[in-house]
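Quick one:
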Amino acid sequence: MTSVIVKSLVNSARQSKRALYTVSSFKRGLSSAVFNKSELSVTAALSRKLECSPLQKRWLYTETDQDMSQHIEKEIENEKKMGASTASYFKNWKINSNGCEVSMSKSEGNETITVEFNVNNATDLVEEDLKSEEGMPHMICRPPFIVEIKKPSGTKVRISCQFLSEYEGDDGDENEVRDKFEIEQFSVYQKEISPATYVCSGETMDGEMYEKLMDMLDERKIDNDFANELIEFSTGYEHGEYIKFLTKFKSFVDEK
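Output:
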């Protein structure tokens, strides 16, 4: 009887061991299946990545770059056809330029007069009745400018001016000489101007003082004739800077 019981227990143990082995084998098979699924996912991801490889992206961008380059080249050709003015401006002034910034100066008696301006963002289409002879609108440059008058003591008056539009302030009186520009603000200082320097606004300035200040500029030949010459000079200068800009941009687009 005892031997029968022992034999039964041994058989049960063997069946349990086979069951455990079967479960273990199933787990290994499941783990392998999961791994294979993960491997397939990685493979698919790599395939997608290769489909959108940087080489292919660069090819797409290059096609657009080529179109842009051709467009810029045509733009440069059209701008050069317009030609640059060969006129000479500001004969009595010493002109220095740095990109879009222009500074010019001259001495009058015991004073040094300096005018500074920047042609960036200063272009406008001319008004309807100021078109070219061909009837086509064209661009002109009317940059804000700063007039600095320096005395022998080193004291300076800095006057900020801006151009008026062709019709701004026009009261219809054809006989009245209208100013081409107006005073925005001015200040008096020595050495270098700073945020602590007092600035007098042209809008709140006493009317008579404003007129006297305009007369001071007029006596120093900062008048309507100067303003017209500045517009002509700035228009040609800005046009040249625009062509340089297009040339630099084309070089950037063409770079591989």
